[in-house]
Amino acid sequence: MVLNEYGKTVEFIWYDLLNHAANIELDEFIVMPNHFHGIINIIVGAGSEPAPTDNRNQHGLSEIIRQLKTFTSKRINTIRQTPGVSVWQRNYHDRIIRDERELSRIQEYIINNPLKWQEDNNNPANFSVDGNGPVNKITDEGWNL
What is the pLDDT of residue 143? Predict the structure, then answer.
């Protein structure tokens, strides 16, 4: 995936999250043309280590995702000169990764995601316009865009 200026902004903010949330580790991620995948390890203090008593910069997933979306939206809208325009969908999909096998499978999915872009239903190259509007070339499914 070759990132444009907006994709590079998302990548920069992804890494910058470490400066805003002290309780996270970043794992695999990929910026796609129409979506983003990333693995965030939230450190909660378990086992023989005591839970942190200083809660500054200790954030849950929803706050971390809010930061990612807010910071990237502001920068992208500055670049595009479109203040206040929505960049991200409202919600996000999350999943708790429960073991090393699942982590490995999801990391592989993220790494290989760009290879699937050619067949992605949302790839503009897979659309043609007929008399009724855009049609997905792969599925011949009409889209109400």
Answer: 44
Name the token pair of 74.
């502001």
Two tokens at 67?
């930061």
Q: Name the token pair of 113.
A: 């995601």
Beta strands in the chain (DSSP E): 24-31, 36-42, 127-130, 133-136
* CA-wise closest residue to 35 among 55, 54, 7, 63: 7
Residue 14 has pLDDT above 90, yes or no: yes
Q: What is the rounded distance in angstroms from the CA atom of residue 1 to the CA atom of residue 112?
A: 11
Write the CA distances from 105 to 18, 54, 100, 112, integer angstroms: 24, 34, 9, 11
Joined tokens for residue 89: 């969908």
- Other C-beta atoms closer than 10 Å to the C-beta of 35 total 13
